[in-house]
Amino acid sequence: MRPSPARLLRGALTAGVALGLSATALASPAQAVDGWDRCPDNAVCGFSQPGYQGDMIVIRKPMLSLGSWDNRIRSYVVKLSGYSSAICLHPKPGLDPEGATHSYFSENLDESSHPELDRAVSSVDVGPDADDFCGSEGRYPTMYDLVNRRPATLPASGAFGDLNRDGYADVLTRNMVGQLWGSHDYTSGSSPRLVGGGWSIMTKLVRHGDYDGDGAEDVYARDGSGVLWLYPGNGAGSFKPRVRIGGGWNTMRDLAAAGDLTGDGKADLLASDGDGVLWTYPGNGRGWFGARQKVGSGWKAINELVGAGDMNSDKKADLVARDTAGRLWLYPGNGRGWFSTRKLIGTGGWNSLGELAGLGDINGDGRADLVAHTPDPDTRDRNRLRVYNGTGDGRLQAPWTLASIRTSHYAF
Fold first, then answer.
1. Distances 107 to 90, 96, 214 between C-alpha atoms, Å
2. Which of 154, 189, 231, 410 could form a disulfide with 159 if both were Cys (CB 3.0 to 4.6 A apart)?
3. Residues 41, 44, 46: CA angle, nearest 5 degrees
4. pLDDT tens-digit profile of 385-408?
5. Rounded-to-integer distance, Cα 193 and Cα 172, Å
6. CA-CA distances (angstroms) from residue 116 to 90, 112, 371, 372?
7. Are 362 and 147 in contact (CB under 8 A)?
8. How many CB atoms lie within 10 A of CB 130?
């Protein structure tokens, strides 16, 4: 809705000229240039004064922090259209949903239904997720099914995916604004936890249990410049200060944290390079790696690697891989850093799915499962997280839906 003061003034000027009155005389009490005209199309503009006057900030994408504009907005103009016309104003930084409100129209905040936001806005969301972010459900997965607690004892090859040591597999999700959320303890109904922001710079995120020897689930992240980082878990659902592992990892097409592949009790990392060579990076139990070992060539035909755990119950970590023809393969680990003869476990159609992930035992039966991002047939901007329960002999059962997430989000 276009702000009216300047438009009414222009109408008065037109009428004055028609009556032979002096336009100059009528123009003397005019306000500054109309804020609607100053604001560019396909944007939201905040103003430092009521009436869409004063300094102006142009907002075209979600802003986790307004920086120097924190607590300065007194009025705003919405010049968005169509499906992405919603905005959400947050009194706290980071798009924290507490106290937030959504709108589709231009307003003076002191005259709005939320005058408490006048000079009290610290972050702003715009676009199709704005309504959901106000209510928080667009920020992290919407869980559908409750899962059972894992057995009290799991073999080392299956004890991974639990960030806060509560006995349940946990989902980590990076959302469209780079926030990382952990979803914990589904049976208690507790809300997901914000781990932190700034994760948009990462081009790969992988995890598979403890890599630094403290018993807590860790995460490896590769950034846009090719540096690999270890985020050591603190056992409570978040991380200690990160540790730089090294550079040059952008030469790798894919990474997979796969657990103990070499049989020494320390978790290892797999990486396939641009030439289609697969490498094992033996973990040293302190978070980084010894000299890499060549597994084999010909892996260009594989477009997804998943460290899914012990899928065939031989107490050795295995690899699940999807090829470019859309077939799914199990590569049984031999405990020496490479694999026995592969086994076809999905005959086709797996390329229609998005990312695949291994979170260990999700349904509480003690067997490793597989998670897939699948398109939601009912909603164009959402995916479903579908769980394929492992049978314990290398096969997968029919899937069930664990959660719904935005297509712009990544769960692992």
1. 15, 22, 53
2. 154
3. 125
4. 999 999 999 999 999 999 999 888
5. 10
6. 11, 9, 43, 43
7. yes
8. 25
